[in-house]
Amino acid sequence: MSSHYQNVREYPAYDDEENTLEAGQTVENKQKTLLATAKNVVDTEAYHMIRALDKSLLDEALKHSAKMLNQLRTSELSPKHYYDLYMLVFDKMRHLEMFFSEENKRGRRMQDLYEVVQHAGNIVPRLYLLITVGSVYIKSKEAPAKDVLKDLVEMCKGVQHPTRGLFLRNYLSQLSKDKLPDVGSEYEGVGGQVQDSINFIIQNFTETVHLFSRLKNEGPASEREKREKERNELSILVGKSLERLSNLEGVTLEIYRSMVLNKVLEVVVQSNDKMVQQYLMDCIIQVFPDEFHMATLDTFLQSCLDLDQGVDLRAILTSLMDRLSNFIQRRASQGEQHDDYGTNVVETFTKYVDKVLEVYAVELSDNLLINISLLSLSLQAYPERTDYVNRIITGVATHLVDTLINDDQVIKLTKKVLTIPLESYKSILKLLDLDNYNQVLTLLPFEEKRMVARQIVRTAIKHGDKITTVDQVNELFELIKPMLKDEPTNETLAEDDWEDFEEEQNLVARCVHLFDNAETDNLFKIYSAARKHFGQGGVKRIQFTLVPLVFKYLELATRIYQSQITAAATPTLEGEAPAVGGVIKQDKVFQYVMEILEVLANQRPGPALQLYLQSALCADRCDLEKIVYELLSQAFMLYEEEDSKVQLEYLHLIINALQGMKHISEENYNTLSTKTCQYSSKLLRKPDQCRAVLMCSHLFWPMFENKELQNSSKALECLQWSLKIVKSCLSNQQILLFVEILNVYAHHFDKKNDKVTAEYLNGMIDLIFTNIPNLEETEETAAAPINIFYRNTLRHLRLRKDQDGEMYDDVRFTLM
């Protein structure tokens, strides 16, 4: 089979749905009848033609082929049904072409056949036969390909009926596509040059466009809509010529610029057919290389302004911008820089986009689509040029500023305008440099603004850009304002949304870790600016956002204190003033911390208590005793207001904080530790009292940070006090408490508390040994775990004896 018959089914397939109206059914039925009759004739004549070919009866075969082709002379079939008939004839004609090829191989001159078929009676069959013989004539090389092609394309002018002429020229294009003179082809040289092929294709293309445009005027006016639909389905026949041009190897950039583009554009513009112009402009974009578009951008865009009113310029512009954007991205991924061919693509597109938006009435959604494509192109071609992005965003803001955005499509596209630079930039700081970004953002409905704000925060956290100025903090928080504060109509929060809200606020809280500055004064101002923004979020937000800010303030206070220590220790030259730190001192920082904690205490007293203790430890490291005492006092006040169920847990935290104090005075420490012991004895449940008092022994021994505060006698008093409390507990609770007390005694003994001697250990061991056999399994007491706990305690004591035998000589292990 000849190559031009391959992939012939690439033509459009038609839908056979019938018009439901009675009149429509009558017309459709008539069309089907006419088509069936014509197909029967084609099949019959093709059968006789093939039989004649098998017998090498050329005259007989040509007679039947002419009768078969005569069916294509009809004017009664619609383009849709004519297409079906054409495809059948096309399939049958391959037999005739194959016969001509065989005849040529047997030595028959194609020039003679070329003259013979010209005697067919009617022009349509004659030209189909002529093209069929002509394709073999070119292949035989008896005559230059350029001459045969020129002769064929000229003679096709004899058919001016739109439908018949359109399909005839398509037949010519299909049979000649592999026989065009081109660089490196077998027909180059004597057969012609690539310029001859270009002239042939463009001439055929021009006539095809004219025929296609005239097709819209065929038939009654009442069927115009149906006819336009059929024309749209046939438009691929027109675009095939452009594909042929793009496939020519000899069409270089220079030839495309000088010989091809201007001629093609002239044909498109002069067609004055909106459908033709829309389709062919898109064909030009799709079939020719991206490099060609880059080099001829101005010419192409200028022609867009000459197209008829009603052509969708948005589709053309966005298609070309998206294609070039992908081209630049592809080159970048391969490590290559795009060649702008002396043209700044963004500047060029901007110039023509401005003209289009100024002259034509462009829908808002189309306006946004154009700017989205221009934005993507700008970020791909010139990612460092934030001024381009800024200009596009400003243009969008200008078109949206007086618009109430309530259309779903416009909302979606506006969000796209905002998210494209967000996805492209690796730095949130570049986003903050866009002047009108927030203006566009504020035009969106609240929920959409919040969605964009979440994406901004995630981007900032992902790339970890440091926010180093108060202005940047204010700009960032202005962008994410929907996450920081509800609008009046969105103050309520459904229970089902709480999980999403919590995740959102945790994202906001993580922004605090982006703040940084080498100068402590500037960093303090940054934190204070953030504090101001967080404070506007209401009680349900500050419990998430203020907590990390407290830790950042504490970190800043420590940093200020350390810088002071370093400055004091740095030697200075004689007469030189010592280094002075920033204006903001650590006590000022703690003042802000206490203000924040006071607010948190009203909403979340439990976490606030923990923060008071953490802040007190930090203040102690900064040698701020007054602040330490104030912070601990506030923690004690919160403790007193807490429920008895959690007081034991908070007492543990208070004891740990007091034990970690380093610079506190003995007087203040005694006051605080005594108060803690009093709290222990006032717990509601006796076992809790016992455990709390037991823990209080650690307030006095050992004191790792400040050994001057150690008091072995008070530690022993706490131990003995806890033992007395055990006697007030139920019998089934006592054994476990005895084992816990033994462990604390062992700890003090191991840490060399001189008041805790081996005699106390022996007494506890005897007490447990005496009572443990009476231990019963109850709902409140699990005997097996207590026994394991006791045995592990004894095993630990024996291990310590093996490690430091002399110290444990007086401890009796006989009962173990």
UniProtKB/TrEMBL annotation:
Membrane-related topology note: Peripheral membrane protein
Domain of life according to the entry: Eukaryota
Main location: membrane
Compartment(s) where it occurs, according to its Swiss-Prot or TrEMBL record: Membrane
Cellular component per GO, a single term: cytosol
Short name of any one Pfam family annotated for the protein: Vps35
Gene Ontology biological process terms from the UniProt entry: intracellular protein transport; retrograde transport, endosome to Golgi
Keywords: Membrane, Protein transport, Transport
Membrane as UniProt keyword: yes
Described purpose of this protein according to its UniProt entry: Plays a role in vesicular protein sorting.
Family: Belongs to the VPS35 family.
Protein name: Vacuolar protein sorting-associated protein 35
The organism of origin for this protein: Acrasis kona
